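Progress note, sequence design subtask.
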């Protein structure tokens, strides 16, 4: 079972780094956050009346045309339907923003319960999600709100969740803010780090750097999710994934092929073992994976009999 996606993230870079990264001078009231939750206030970068600005907005979009504040405020918007849905299309056309972040959390659900994971970029401490914002005004009350755009997950994130936030490179910021689409809203192609963290993140009341500390590999299994997806995975789709995976850097390629093996042979305990070895950092390349596979007398039948050569 896959539960709600990207409903917590972090923003803890020093204020000087934030100003330098987004090119916004001046004072900035800001505190570091390791557990930004829906309905809370966080920073967004947008084009204001007097130029670029970093401002505080509430997370959970409220369309300007809403007569009353809705009980359920969307925190994410799917890239595939962004331009079509009434709640998002006006903001998509006229009020785009960047949501600064250092990382975000996702959960898997298995026999042992929910397990949170922390996800960050391998080569950047500070980055931005693509976002949209709205201004709601009623009876003298003005509230600025935002939502984060999501895309299908990349191969690194697929075992954890089937979607991910739209992460932009610095050289894509201006294109997004000035109307670029849809080539910007694609699964993030770079290397990412994913690791289990404490269940303390489950409560929005908790804060602090300890929330992003790695914990021991969880007992919660990703494979029950994998089995569900395997039923609808066509041979053509597998081949497309393999072609894309060839160009991935290590260790993302090894992670991908372990995931593919699990998809094909989810009931085999060896699939679990390979996946855990990648998660624990004991397999960091496709070459290691292949070598271990051929040395294993109980190996998975990943090749046909005539091609199955050491």
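Output:
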């Amino acid at each position: 079972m896959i539960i709600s996606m990207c409903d917590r993230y972090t923003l803890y870079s020093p204020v000087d780094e934030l100003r330098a990264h987004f090119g916004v001078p001046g004072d900035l009231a800001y505190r570091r956050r390791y557990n930004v939750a829906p309905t809370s206030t966080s920073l967004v970068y947008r084009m204001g009346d007097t130029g670029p600005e970093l401002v505080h907005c509430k997370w959970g979009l409220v369309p300007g045309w809403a007569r009353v504040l809705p009980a359920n405020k969307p925190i994410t918007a799917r890239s595939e339907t962004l331009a079509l849905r009434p709640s998002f299309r006006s903001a998509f056309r006229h009020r785009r923003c960047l949501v600064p972040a250092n990382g975000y959390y996702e959960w898997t659900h298995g026999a042992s319960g929910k397990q949170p994971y922390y996800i960050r970029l391998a080569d950047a401490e500070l980055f931005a999600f693509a976002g949209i914002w709205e201004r709601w005004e009623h009876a003298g009350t003005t509230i600025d709100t935002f939502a984060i755009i999501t895309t299908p997950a990349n191969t690194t994130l697929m075992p954890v969740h089937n979607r991910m936030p739209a992460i932009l490179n610095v050289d894509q910021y201006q294109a997004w803010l000035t109307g670029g689409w849809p080539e910007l809203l694609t699964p993030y192609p770079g290397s990412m780090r994913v690791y289990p963290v404490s269940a303390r993140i489950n409560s929005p009341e908790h804060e602090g750097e300890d929330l992003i500390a790695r914990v021991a590999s969880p007992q919660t299994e990703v494979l029950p999710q994998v089995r569900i997806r395997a039923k609808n995975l066509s041979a053509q789709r597998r081949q497309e994934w393999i072609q894309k995976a060839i160009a991935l850097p290590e260790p993302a390629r090894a992670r991908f092929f372990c995931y593919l093996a699990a998809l094909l042979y989810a009931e085999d305990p060896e699939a679990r073992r390979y996946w855990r070895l990648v998660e624990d950092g004991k397999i960091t390349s496709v070459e290691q994976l292949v070598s271990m596979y051929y040395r294993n007398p109980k190996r998975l039948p990943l090749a046909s009999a005539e091609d199955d050569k050491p």
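The chain has two domains: 9-212, 223-307. Work on this subtask will continue into the next period as scheduled.
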